[in-house]
Amino acid sequence: MGKDSGLPQNEKSSSPKLVRGVFLAVIAGLLINTFMGLFIDAEEFKAAFTGVSVVTFLVPFLAIMLAYFIDSFRYKLVFSRFGVKASFRDSLYNNIIGYFFSNVTPGSVGGQPFQILHFSRLGLDSAIVSNVVFSRLIETTFVQLVIVMLFFHKGIGMMASLGNGAYLLGAGMLVTLILTTVLLLGFLNPHFLGVIALKLEKSRLGRLIAKLTKDPRWAEKLSVWSQGLGAGFRVLWNQNFGIMLIDMIFAAVEQVLWSVALYVPLTRLVGTPPPFPEFLLSFVVCSLVSLFIPTPGASGSTEASFLLVLGTLTGKPGATMSAILIWRFGAYYLHLLFGGLIYFFVPTQKAVYVRGEDGILRHIRPTRRSKR
Fold this sequence. Notes:
Elements: E1 3-5, H1 9-12, H2 15-37, H3 42-49, H4 54-79, E2 84-85, H5 88-104, H6 111-121, H7 126-150, H8 152-159, H9 165-188, H10 191-200, H11 204-213, H12 218-227, H13 229-238, H14 241-270, H15 276-290, H16 301-314, H17 317-345, E3 347-349, E4 353-355, E5 361-363, H18 368-371
Parallel strand pairs: 2-5
Antiparallel strand pairs: 1-3, 4-5
Helix pairs in contact: 3-17, 4-5, 4-14, 4-17, 5-6, 5-17, 6-7, 7-9, 7-13, 7-14, 8-9, 8-15, 9-15, 9-16, 10-12, 14-15, 14-17, 15-16, 16-17
């Protein structure tokens, strides 16, 4: 069981690309936020920061940290259905670095692929890992759909007073419905994902994916991979529906945590924030829409979309922008630094999960002799 710093050498060779991704994320955020600052009341913006406590700055960072811990427990819960006793340390590392990769890739799409890669490298079956990660993605999307459906009537009422933000809110609700439908089709019929990939293979989008992945056979491999999803889904959702329902409840708690990370500074700086149901709906749809802007980690586009909607809802765009910047500083930029440090300096190992006599896969810690 060899130990190395972070990920394998061939992945470490991409470190300059990661550094470039971090740099682009920061620069994109700085430029877009500076541009938005030209259109708000500078005095209101500055006044909002007066008397802001350190706690207000820390709440976004700590809320995401708490989400990491909940997510790690969820990993242990779901992996146990496949006879895997997932290490809490491995699960926590996976969540932290998964979020880091989401933060440095365009549209925040790099998190799940890395999570699958990391657990597979530790010695877990890639089909099982893919099932777990994909099922969690479906749960999150389904929770977002439930939020949109519960407060859809409030969203319709809000659109009348949002001006240009109404288009963003409407697009977000539409995107939620479409994304959930596609993922549910993939969940109910995993072969559907492979069929889509094969049809896209020769298209312009397919050629772009082949170029980005540097794999001309990406569609064929995805089709083969999708065949193995069906058995795993049956294990999780047919035989362990109660466990998955519990996991979905935790996913809902996490969704609230992510939104609270912004709601707390917004409440402190604006004074009278919008009611939480309206805010939660806005948070979900703005988060989804901002992902379609191809900046690393949706940097800058997130701030712009939230300001467009929440600035109108509060009637205080300057104070709202101040709250959004505090939120992004703690929930995004600090975690960009934190995740980067973990990625580059915390060692990981290969093939450390071994099946015991009871048939359970466990993380086996190396002995002193094996470390030499």
